[in-house]
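QA checklist item 7 of 12: single-chain prediction sanity check.
[x] sequence parsed
[x] length recorded as 644
[x] structure emitted
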Amino acid sequence: MRDNNNFFVLGAVVGFVCICAYSLGLTAPLFFDDVPNLTANHFLQIDGKDFDDWRVAVLSSDSGLLHRPVAMFTFAVNFVAARDFSPASLKVVNLVIHLLIAVFIYFFCRAVLRTPALKDLRLGAHQCRVVAIIAASIWLLHPLHVSTVLYAIQRMAQLSTLFIIAGLLLFVRYRLRWAESGASIGELVAAGLWLVLLGALAVLSKENGALLPWLVAVVEVTLFRGIWCGSPSRRLVWLGWGFLALPIVLITVVFLVSPETISGRFAGREFSLEERLLTQGRVLWRYLGWILLPNIIDMGFFHDDIPLSRDLWTLYTTALSLLAWVGTIVAALLLHRKYPLFAFAVFFYLVAHSMESTVIPLEMVFEHRNYLPSVGVCLLVAIALFQLAASFERLRLRVVLGSALSVLVVLLVIRTNAWSDEMTLARYNVINHPASARANFFYANALFKRFEQAEALGLSEEEQRTLAVTSRTYFERMHAIDERDFAALVMLYQLDTLHFPGLSKDNDWLGTLEALAKTRRLQASDRTALGALVGFSGTAAGQVGRARVGLMLDQLAERYPGRMDLVALRYKLLAGQDNTDAAQLLVLLERAKQVNPKGTEIYAYLVQYHGSEDIANSYETIRDWMQRDTKRRELSVIRRIFDN
């Protein structure tokens, strides 16, 4: 009983320290993907009184094939409870989830240490608890996870991790019993149903949840080795290894039979499938380095300063990284019986990264992708610390553990303090990653926002001038780093037109944008930049270049005929002109409807147009809208039209 109390006190202390450290960043403003997914998502901003509002809210995300309804439900609850998307209300919930996952990791690691493959470690119940709480504490306090917990929208990754760890814990506990005494059909069905439920919750939080069955296979082949009723089952061993290899075989078959199915999805990226796979070999080692040696200077919100691997040899680390991974995997396979925990950590890490670090055309690097993969590594580190202390009589475990956790706490506090406000985070990012185009833009934008608020902040003219010049310097630096990005060019065009007319004569930023629009592969982030350009073109200062902006949008629409966001921007630009012929707007909208017959995005603009021109056509448009909106995601929008 006394040991249990000691563990409870230790866990409570670690949790309290974690809460104190993260409290420094709980009130930091929302930014980046938080804005389009939360604050700009009016479907989530409900009062909670109407069931259909809840239905629409949980389906309101455009991320992923399934819209991530579990995560979106929690965000809707957040809004109903707080009556707003305040940073604190969102991030406190993220912190609670982080603490809850750590509890599940403790029980999961404790169960893993009792598996048949780890009997040679000769750990008693007390020692298993010690190692488990070390592993959970390292994971909980690791500074790498700050960009998951304090980045509100990454609750999706948190919830997926929560349900995956819960599913693995369930499997290991059942499997321990089956390894000793087998299982009845009813128990197998019950375990299967629970795994399906937890897997579904994980997938509906974020698509990474689909990795649960694959991670179950990792646990089976490395830690249970087919043991059933006290003896190995050859059939179960082959089943486990077959299931572990199945996803790799399926992807290989798809690529060989229809390579365009995978490679064709990279048409919207500035890199190819081959370049992504080569680069990820290096990135995965860098991730692992952050987990084992948390160098917070190398961490940051943006990592676009990591160069692409265009081939095997231009960057010598590309071939070395891939060769090292081949060696590591071969070693894990050959030594999985002698060193099962090493094999478990390797396969767990690679499988947990497999969805976001292989063939899906996602951006190259994000720290939050390590939230789940780091679990196995943390357990391996915990065992290493425990055995290090046991190997030296004078080296007490308390000293080893206290030293390791103290370092993590200091680093965690430094990182959470950096996330305490947008300006501080932006400054840290650009200091640590001066070659990152996005870090430079983020800092420049933070300075520009402060410049726009200068009067409210009571800043002097000299301070305002300094802010404007410094902001422009970093925008120009971003453009120098990445000449093919829209964002810096849009801001430089706006800044020079408004505040640096002398420089605007020497720099034809709008002309550069027009040239770039002919070849640039549109990214998701370009929508914000083009939106800012259209907004500025609607002002008195920007009307000089309005016609050129319109032609540029027409060119982009021709290259991307299915992009309704481009049509919406063109409509907004035309609608804001006093001399626009109404027929032009109708032609634009009708053409967009024909190009994308299954889309619904254009109908709000059609209703807006007909509402002022022809009420009968307005009702007919709403009828067509409802027929196409088969999931009734936009029913609340249509209802508001009638309410008004």
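[x] summary fact logged: The chain is about 70% helix and 0% strand.
[ ] second reviewer sign-off
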